[in-house]
């Protein structure tokens, strides 16, 4: 597939948004990986690594972004919230909508995220509008419909998704992944395993992958994190004298 200048500009634009999330992750003392998800070139979700704050090794940036979409999908299609409909027509900027102001499952997610991080989590109205309109046009809100929605999405991650996240991306049906730097220890999109190419059977459909977008900037954020040290890493049970390994 030939990559045009327009493709490059689009990829770099959204990767910079993902890098912003990675910077916030670093500020929170998390391993700095960020991601955003777009549909029709509009922001629909975002997330960053929350494994330390959540004491949960699965809370990678990609899972956080998926979680946001799935909870809102469930809420939109199990409730007739006039506030949501109003937001779809009256919110030109996603930063204007703070879900903490509303009593709903969405606010519960936002409250949890606010407790876990230093940033103010908000819901992009384009996500609300897209999911609501998409569900209305289909007339259903089952698994097939949300899978169809995901098939229209692109995920931008600052680092190659790990094997676990690549498996989730495949199963959830994301059509395309764009990432920054390679993940040479745990990468699931070519570095260690190639989950994206469909070689793991019918349970793991293939998806498009493009890497190396603003990779040097992604690496620089990692360098800042590792030069400072992981402040949330568990303390060793015993002190190891490193000089014995340098002989």
TrEMBL record:
Residue ranges constituting the CMP/dCMP-type deaminase domain according to the UniProt record: 9-200
GO BP terms: tRNA wobble adenosine to inosine editing
Pfam families listed in its UniProt record: dCMP_cyt_deam_1
Keywords: Hydrolase
Record-linked CDD domains: nucleoside_deaminase
InterPro entries: CMP_dCMP_dom, Cytidine_deaminase-like
Domain of life according to the entry: Eukaryota
Gene Ontology MF term list: metal ion binding; tRNA-specific adenosine-34 deaminase activity
Protein name: Putative tRNA-specific adenosine deaminase
